[in-house]
Design goal:
- The protein is α/β, with parallel strands linked by helices.
- The protein has three domains: 276 residues, Glycoside hydrolase, family 3, N-terminal domain (TIM Barrel, Alpha-Beta Barrel); 241 residues, 3-Layer(aba) Sandwich (Rossmann fold); 120 residues, Immunoglobulins (Immunoglobulin-like, Sandwich).
- The protein is built from 16 helices and 31 strands.
- The strands form eight sheets. It has a seven-stranded mixed sheet. Strands 11-18-17-16-12-13 form a six-stranded mixed sheet, sandwiched between helices. A five-stranded antiparallel sheet has the order 25-24-29-30-31, with no helix packed on it.
- The longest helix is centred in the middle third of the chain and has 22 residues.
- The radius of gyration is 25 Å and the shape is globular.
- The protein starts with 7 loop residues before the first helix and ends with a strand.
Length: 658
């Protein structure tokens, strides 16, 4: 059926959806598509309309990005596409590419990074693999939705250059994968409701070549006629009040049939493309294979933050284990985020003390020590710590603290009860390792210097317990690195210094988001962007830059694993403009690679840079521009750990290696 076959009333209905999860089908006159929430897997509502169906629970988006492994990203997306086939979903409401501007945002576990390039590349690969396997992507949330506080009314006040270089950028990169749809956010952008943000929608369509559908977040539409005129094609879910007003506005000439046609045509195209994408698709992975994959994905994303020689654990050692996060069978919400990203898992949470007993064969003593945030068995935990070779404290946050519709406390700390257990047991046994299940940075200032090791497990999915044990025991060599900065405390963050009230959030820091701020202003941090330890040791040598014509640059270098253990290293390529005519952060991520290197081996790694690696948004020109002059190319193990550097000169659109 084509647009010309629809009546005006049907056109109005089709841009207002049907119910909560479907597009309008006029009782079978046209196909209908079904959407599902997504962040740690799919969240599919029960047919009865309440609760959610169990589905595979994957490591959170944060942990996926921490892998820096695009093969893992693609396999993750393939598995989720299979889940969509299992549950009859056509559209996946993800990935989320919002920038982690503040560590307090309640949904940070659903997002990839504080860096727009990294977030965009992960999203691009995810979308490509997802849509190849039959599910359609909906990239969210456009845009500048970086806190949950008062999200439906708050206005994000952001200048154009910052929007283009930071907050639009992940969407720009993601559009290269031709996502089926993009979801608007709840907030206002410079006073304009996101669902009525024509300026931004025009950028998506005219500048980024986006040819899909723009839909609303659930309940984000305030005025259906205004949003349609701005270019928002589909309102979700159905609102009788909004529909009645839209009909009245059409009859009153406030919105024209031509404007309605533009939205209705994109809804029709959206529906037919989604159905065509799924035609003939079969599952690439069985459900059991998908569950098993959650362990593999988590192992790639776990970040070893501190290790004073205590890890990996040796066979037969005596262990003290404390904390309900180690065995949360009665409260799986401890090891997941909350809100629409939460998944009802298929399998019970894994019992880590039992897995440790099985893997190490030694004595493993377990005490809960605290339930959620209440200390109740500190003395037995202290006694066990005294009798153990290594003391393991499993701690974190969970869905009650990190969730949609609310932000975290500015203190950024674990509960007082958890901190007391860490400090008490570490005082007795200095060989204490803290394993953290959380979705955003933790202020560790009270205890970081008292413990021998820290492992970041994030929100780990179905087989997260096995993955954590495999890293603790050395069965897996940790290779994840942080995709966001861990500040010492919230007061040190750039957002702590900006203006915010109940209605307005001023993005006064501009481009200085995350590491761009800490690195440029030399602000000490707990753990820098791109940081992560390994049981191997890597040396970087032999940087070679090769101009490929125009603004193409090949960056090659060698990484040697000079240890006795094979491992993987995430290397990062940053670009620094020397003596710029406009403000630019000290350096910016423009490429990366994750390289497997056998013990004692040396591997050559190559990263390609292009024009986008050197541009800035010129307010005066109203476009991305490239400055002539000297640039430094920096290869690092993290943003703070620069290993190799060399210079190039750009003149009249050509690169010369200096």
């Amino acid at each position: 059926m084509e647009l010309k076959d629809l009546t005006v009333e049907e056109k109005l209905r089709i841009i207002c959806c049907k119910g909560r999860w479907h597009t309008e089908d006029f009782n079978g006159k046209i196909p209908s598509v079904k959407v599902t929430d997504a962040s740690m897997g799919i969240r599919m509502a029960n047919d009865e309309g309440y609760g959610d169906k169990p589905s595979v629970s994957y490591p959170s988006s944060q942990m996926l990005a921490n892998s820096w492994n695009l093969e893992i990203v693609r396999e993750y997306a393939e598995c989720v596409a299979d889940d969509c086939l299992d549950y009859g979903a056509d559209i996946l409401l993800g990935p989320g590419v919002n920038i982690k501007r503040s560590p307090l945002c309640g949904r940070n576990f659903e997002y990839y990074s504080e860096d727009p390039y990294l977030a965009g590349v992960v999203a691009r690969e995810y979308i490509s693999a997802l849509q190849q396997e039959g599910a359609s992507a909906c990239v969210k949330h456009f845009c500048a939705n970086n806190l949950e506080f008062n999200r439906t009314r708050q206005s994000s006040e952001v200048d154009e250059r910052t929007l283009r270089e930071i907050y639009y950028k992940p969407f720009e990169i993601a559009c290269a994968a031709h996502p089926s749809s993009i979801m608007c956010s709840y907030n206002r952008i410079n006073g304009v409701q996101a669902s009525e943000y024509k300026k931004g929608f025009d950028v998506l369509r005219n500048d980024y070549g986006f040819d899909g559908l723009i839909m609303s977040d659930w309940g984000a539409v305030c005025d259906r006629a205004k949003s349609a005129k701005a270019g928002l094609d589909l309102e979700m879910p159905f609102s009788q009040d909004n529909y009645d007003k839209l009909l009245k506005d059409y009859e009153g000439g406030i919105i024209t049939e031509k404007e309605i046609d533009a939205c209705a045509q994109r809804v029709l195209d959206f529906v037919y493309r989604a159905k065509e994408r799924q035609r003939g698709k079969t599952r690439k992975h069985t459900q059991q294979e998908r569950i098993a994959f959650t362990r593999k994905a988590e192992e790639e994303g776990i970040v070893l933050l501190k290790n004073n020689g205590v890890l990996p654990l040796g066979k037969g050692c005596t262990l003290s284990v404390c904390g309900t996060f180690a065995a949360p069978a009665n409260n799986p919400d401890l090891i997941t985020g909350g809100g629409s990203g939460k998944v009802v898992r298929l399998t019970p949470p894994q019992n880590i003390p039992e897995i440790l007993r099985r893997e190490l064969g030694g004595k493993v003593m377990y005490e809960e020590a605290f339930r959620e945030s209440v200390a109740w068995q500190t003395s037995p935990a202290d006694l066990n710590a005294a009798k153990s070779d290594v003391n393991l404290v499993f701690a974190g946050t969970g869905a009650q603290i990190e969730s949609e519709e609310r932000d975290r406390e500015p203190a950024m700390k674990l509960s007082d009860a958890i901190e007391r257990v860490i400090l008490s047991t570490a005082e007795i046994n200095p060989r204490t390792v803290v394993v953290l299940f959380a979705g955003a940075p933790i202020d560790m200032s009270a205890w970081i210097d008292r413990v021998a090791g820290v492992v970041w497990a994030g929100f780990a999915g179905e087989c997260g317990g096995e993955a954590v044990v495999n890293v603790l025991t050395g069965k897996v060599n940790p290779s994840g690195k942080l995709t966001e900065t861990f500040p010492l405390c919230y007061a040190d963050t750039p957002t702590a210094k900006t203006y915010r009230d109940g209605r307005v959030a001023c993005y006064d820091e501009g481009l200085n988001v995350g590491y761009r701020y800490y690195d440029t202003y030399r602000v000490p941090v707990l753990f820098p962007f791109g940081f992560g330890l390994s049981y191997s040791h890597f040396n970087y040598t032999g940087l070679k830059l090769t101009a490929k014509g125009g603004l193409e640059l090949e960056v090659s270098y060698e990484i040697e694993n000079d240890s006795e253990r094979s491992g993987k290293e995430v290397s990062q390529v940053y670009v620094r403009k020397i003596s710029s005519c406009v403000y630019r952060p000290k350096k910016e991520l423009k490429g990366f690679a994750k390289t497997a290197i056998k013990a004692g081996a040396k591997v050559c790694t190559t990263v390609m840079l292009d024009r986008a690696s050197f541009v800035y948004w010129s307010e005066g020109q109203g476009r991305f521009d490239v400055e002539d002059g000297v640039y430094e190319i920096i290869v690092g193990a993290s943003v703070a750990d620069e290993r190799l550097r060399a210079k190039i000169e750009i003149e009249n659109g050509e690169i010369t290696v200096l």
